[in-house]
Amino acid sequence: ERHDLIHWLHHLVDRFEMLVKDRDVSFVRRFSQGPIQVDMDSDKMTQVLDNIISNALKFSPEGGTITVGAELKENEALIDIQDEGQGIPIKDQHKIFDRFYRVDKARARSLGGTGLGLAIAKEMIDAHQGSVWVSSEPGQGTSIKISLPLASSGEGCESNG
Ligand code: ATP
Ligand code: MG
C-alpha cells in the first residue's frame, strides 16, 4: 500500500514514546517536510522499525536520545535511527545482519534477544527493494539507515509526463 512515510513515522514514534515512559530516554524527530510517498507493507515495515528502535532502546544509556530521521535523498526515502549507546566495533558491523549474530554474547544474553531481529529486518527491506546498513562509532553510538524506493508514479503529484 501507499503511505506517507513522514505521517507513518510520526505514529510509530508516538507509540514508542508511550511505551518508554518509565525510561529516561527521549526521542527526537528529524523529518523533512512531508509527504514522502512510498509503497510498503505497513505491518512488515512496522516489524522492521520496531526491531531497530528496540535495539536502540536496549543499548541506550539512561538520559540518552534516540533520533529518528527521514528525508528524500537521491530519489529515495532515507530513514535513520540513531542512538547514543555503546556502538558496534568496526569488525562486527558487517555481521549484525546475519542470523543469530550478537556482538557480545554475555551481554546479549542478559539483555535478551536471539539475534534474529536485524536478519529478519534486512530480509523485509530487501523484499521492498530497499537497503539497510549501519554506521557506528564505537563509544559514540549507532546509526541504522534504511533506504526505500519512492512510490512509482501513477495517481499523485508528478508534473509533466
Ligand atoms: P532479537 O532482535 O532477536 O531480539 P538481538 O537484538 O540481539 O535479538 P539483532 O536485532 O539482530 O538481535 O541485533 C544483532 C546484534 O547487533 C545485537 O545483539 C547487538 O550486538 C548488535 N546491535 C544491534 N543494534 C545495536 C545498537 N543500536 N547498538 C549496539 N549494538 C547493536
Ligand atoms: Mg533486536
UniProtKB/TrEMBL annotation:
Subcellular location: Cell membrane
Coiled coil: none
Histidine kinase domain residues: 1-152
Recorded name of the encoding gene: walK
Span within the parent record: 455 to 615 of 615
Protein name, per record: histidine kinase
Upper classification of the organism: Bacteria, Bacillati, Bacillota, Bacilli, Bacillales
Domain of life assignment: Bacteria
